[in-house]
Amino acid sequence: MSKIIKSVLFISALIILIAVIISLQILKSERKIILFVTGDTEGYLIPCGCRTSPSGGLSRRVTLMEKISLENKGAKIYPVEIPDVFTDRNPSKDLINRTMGDFFERMNYIVGIGERDLSLKEKLKEYYKGDYYLALNKDFKDEFVFEMGGGLSFTKKGRLHLLFLCETEDFSSSLEEYYKKKVAENKNDAFVILGKVSPKLVEKLVSEKGNLLAVIATWEQTTTSLPQKAMGSWAVFLGDKGRKYATLEVSYYGGKWEAWPETAYIDRDIAPNEEEEGKITKVLDEVEKKNREIIEKMKVENSQQTLYSGSSSCKDCHKGPYEIWQNSNHFSATKVLEIDHQKNNPECLICHSTGFGSGGYPNDKIDLNGIGCESCHGSGKNHPPQKMKIEKGTKPCLQCHTKRDSPFFNDGFLLLIDHTSRKKNKNIGVIVGVQN
Ligand code: HEC
Ligand code: HEC
Ligand code: HEC
Ligand code: HEC
User: Fold this and answer.
1) 397 lines ligand 4 (CB under 6 A)
2) Residues 6+ apart with CB under 8 A from 187
3) Is any atom of ligand 4 closer than 6 Å to the C-beta of 368?
4) Per residue in 261-319, pLDDT tens?
5) Fewer Cβ in 10 A, N or C end of the chain?
6) In the predicted model, what is the mean pLDDT of the chain?
7) For residue 328, which ligand has an atom nearest its CA?
8) With contact defined as beta carbons under 8 Å apart, do 53 and 98 qualify?
9) Residue (of 304, 101, 413) closest to 117 by Cα position
10) Among the bound ligands, the one closest to the CA of 329
11) Separation of alpha carbons 399 and 103, rounded Å
């Protein structure tokens, strides 16, 4: 082979090598991150009980993150929590909230908080040692910034701001102003808004100027089954009780941003991570122990003096209504709590037993399990001859059948519990909706 051919071959090989190195660099400069967002968890370590096939809980998040990470080799996953984060109701709230905080620390969460969390005041620092994020509150950071791109010196770098908002009643206009200011200060950057934000405010935010890639929010029961695109920005609502998660894949390449959201329920079908589940079960056992002590004490107090006489005392004179009631879900409403380690949880018993909090359940002498007759008709101590209460309509039901815990409640439910002597429509089969 002549010298010339040899050097031509050598130079071509060199050129190919350089081209490969450059393209590898360019590929490397494309940075992809994935936000894994959950919200409105309110201390629910395990899937919340109310509603058919409830979803949520912490241990399944680990399984999900592992799966997402396998499917997206090379992309870094950032778990993010949005308001409301902690419980302020449970008698063991410190233990529950510390368990949440410990989980966030181990999983490297970015934690945004909301107004309800703020009521926990200096306890917040005890629950979670990392930074909390919240806009317009000087005690917390307001944004988390990612630098992306820039593998070779000639490729531009880009900055992505995660902004953490929590809307309160008179607060939405200042949040809009806050976002406008951020955009004005960072003209070439991209934004993702996270937090507790109403659909109304989302509408305003997406119509502002600025490169808003997505809004991922909680707002009561508002959920989006599929991410929606509004004015060029994605909008996702997660609903309540930490039941749903969203992922947002963000990539930056050659000065251009791409964002792709997905959302789904954290179903019970997803296998929980065993190690986390073990930790949580231990905590719940401890919580249950404390609850049991509270309930045992109440049992003795309530049996000394109570206004209630228990459903079985009505049985002899109201055989028909009693039998219908005995076959209803109201009869077993206390028992259903057992499946969730919540048998003695005051937070649940207020809606899952008779007269809880007003000297009724629990009682050593009379049985006030379930939603008994006196839940709806009032105390039966002096009846007869005193008349019992009969309220028409669904008003008395709504104290328990709240939007949050019974979202499909409607007038049809009255027919389902009908136990009057009037002729019943045997064909009533109102199907109670199933969320998922
Ligand atoms: C504000 C009242 C309220 C509170 C508080 C409440 N529940 Fe419920 N729960 C309900 C109502 C109402 C239903 C029936 C919902 C329906 O079918 O529409 C229900 C249903 C359930 C069911 C039955 C679901 C099914 O598919 O049969 C379980 C289990 C349950 N709740 C567990 C809990 C647990 C555990 C707690 C405490 C962490 C709790 N609930 C707190 C009102 C409440
Ligand atoms: C969830 C609420 C609820 C529970 C629990 C309940 N009731 Fe009622 N009850 C009602 C309502 C509402 C009416 C009125 C229905 C109507 O007039 O359409 C009613 C009506 C009645 C009446 C009047 C019947 C008639 O023929 O006019 C009797 C008697 C009665 N209930 C007894 C009982 C007894 C006994 C129990 C327990 C075994 C019980 N109820 C449990 C809500 C309840
Ligand atoms: C000793 C028998 C007896 C017992 C026990 C009894 N009831 Fe009654 N109840 C009656 C009679 C009698 C009436 C009146 C029927 C009528 O006027 O049509 C009545 C009427 C009612 C009514 C219709 C409204 C009213 O006051 O007229 C309700 C509701 C009711 N009872 C609920 C209960 C519940 C709940 C219990 C258990 C806590 C209970 N009753 C226990 C005998 C009894
Ligand atoms: C003290 C709280 C409370 C009150 C008051 C109450 N409920 Fe309920 N109700 C519950 C709970 C808790 C359940 C779930 C029980 C279960 O699944 O074990 C339930 C379940 C039901 C169900 C069965 C739904 C299902 O998923 O199978 C119907 C129907 C119903 N309630 C109707 C009513 C009506 C109508 C009223 C008012 C007249 C009423 N309830 C008042 C707590 C209450």
Assistant:
1) yes
2) none
3) no
4) 999 999 989 999 999 999 999 999 999 999 999 999 999 999 998 889 999 999 999 99
5) N
6) 90
7) 4
8) no
9) 101
10) 4
11) 33
Choose among 118, 117, 110: nearest CA to 85: 117
- Cβ–ligand 4 distance for 408 under 6 Å, the answer no
pLDDT value at position 123? 97
Largest pairwise CA distance in the chain: 121
3-state class (DSSP) for residue 55:
coil
Q: Is 400 in the pocket of ligand 2 (CB under 6 A)?
A: no
Give the whole-angstrom CA distance, residue 220 versus residue 57: 18
**pLDDT score recorded for residue 253:** 85
Q: Token pair of 384, please?
A: 């007869």
Domains in the chain: ranges and CATH:
20-265 (3.60.21.10), 274-390 (1.10.1130.10)
Q: Which amino acid, 289?
A: K
Cβ–ligand 4 distance for 398 under 6 Å, the answer no
Cα(287)–Cα(50) distance, integer angstroms? 19
Instruction: Kindly give the parts of the chain with pLDDT less than 50.
Output: 29, 153, 425-436
* Ligand 3 contacts CB of residue 375 (under 6 A): no
Nearest to 49 by CA among 281, 330, 336, 284: 336
pLDDT attached to residue 198? 95
CB 90 within 8 A of CB 347: yes
CB 413 within 8 A of CB 402: no
Tally of CB atoms within 10 A around 97? 24
Atom number in ligand 4 closest to CA 328: 23
Is 333 close to ligand 2, i.e. is its CB under 6 Å away?
A: no
**Residue spans of beta strands (DSSP E) within 305-347:** none
Ordered strands of the 233-237 beta sheet: 143-149, 157-166, 190-196, 211-218, 233-237, 228-230
Reading the block at residue 203, the tokens are 């509408």
Distance, CA 218 to ligand 1 centroid (Å)?
Answer: 21
What DSSP designation does 353 have?
Answer: B
Handedness of CA 424, 425, 427, 428 (dihedral sign): negative
Q: Would you list the DSSP string of 123-150? A: HHHHH--S-EE-TT-TTSB-EEEEEEE-
The confidence score (pLDDT) of residue 52 equals: 66
First to last CA, the chain: 72
pLDDT given for residue 170 in this prediction = 67
> Which of ligand 1's atoms lies nearest the C-alpha of 402?
1
Atom 15 in ligand 4: residue holding the nearest Cα: 333
